[in-house]
Amino acid sequence: MHLSRIILYPIKSLDGVSVSEARMTEGGVLEHDRVYAIMDAEGKYVNGKRNDRIHRIRCSFSDDFREVCLGDRDTVTEERFMLADPNPINRWLSAFFGFAAQLRHEPRSGFPDDLEAFGPTVVGEASLMEVASWYPGLSLESVRRRFRTNLEIDGRETAFCEDRLYGAPGELRPFHVGDVQFMGHNPCQRCVVPTRDPDGMGAVSGFQKEFMKRRQESLPPWADARRFNHYYRFAVNTSVPPDQAGMILRLGDTIQPDIA
Predict the structure, then answer these.
(1) Less CB within 10 Å around the terminal CB: N or C of the chain?
(2) What is the rounded average pLDDT of the residues 67-92?
(3) 115 lies in the same domain as 15
(4) Closest to 178 in 3D by CA, of 259, 109, 247
């Protein structure tokens, strides 16, 4: 298995950026990945789980991740902001959502959903293609944007090859991506976001029910079924030990489960 794609999501819940390499931080996350989050006045995330209007925002970043362009997909107007000066961004976000919203920054550990399995998520390109085949009209890129995974395994691998990277209940399975050590936790429990078109064009009727049916039917023999209290689980949650800080992932790196 080889690393074929690295996607960073600098602002949690917004568009991603494909890169050729990425450095691990002391907090065990990819540098620049989900290090910004939009929050309301009560300090709660403004994300796709709580506000589907967020799917209308389009964003892009400068190569050094110091600037961001924000726009509404329904307009042709974009505005460029310096991320070091959040006040103009906060005004734009508040106007867009219609309530007080602000951008928070945490460069070391970011804003992961899972505080135990806080590392990059891993999925196979063949797995994404398999899921796309379950829904007429869905493209590979649409499925990729719905599930928002960081690290992608070469598409020549078997579908759900990433299920080799976690073990039995209570077990953390070590594996390496290039020189970087990871701990595989579990298949990732999904939320409502993948059911929706990433371009804000509505939800696929029966998406979750169909996914669970197909996922159970196609569960590979190397996946431990005890890790599935339900089958709306896809991609692998990980953590990265602190001593991996500064290590770099690169496209083409070998993904290898550690063998004792």
Answers:
(1) C
(2) 92
(3) yes
(4) 247
Could you tell me how many helices (H) and strands (E) the chain has, helices first? Answer: 4, 15
Q: Which positions ≥6 away from 245 have C-beta within 8 Å?
A: 24, 25, 26, 28
For residue 50, the model assigns a pLDDT of 87
Domain extent for 124: 3-29+111-257
Look up the pTM and report it: 0.93
Which of these, 246, 257, 238, 241, lies nearest to 122 by C-alpha position?
238
Residue 260 pLDDT more than 60?
A: no
Verify that 25 and 128 share a domain, yes or no: yes
Q: Are 174 and 183 spatial neighbours (Cβ–Cβ below 8 Å)?
A: yes
What domain count does the chain have?
A: 2
Q: What are the helix (H) ranges across the chain?
A: 86-97, 125-133, 140-147, 207-217
Q: In which band, very low, low, confident or very high, does the pLDDT at 203 lie, cut at 50, 70 and 90?
A: confident
User: Any idea what the CATH number is for the domain that residue 168 is in?
Assistant: 2.40.33
pLDDT average, residue stretch 78-87: 95
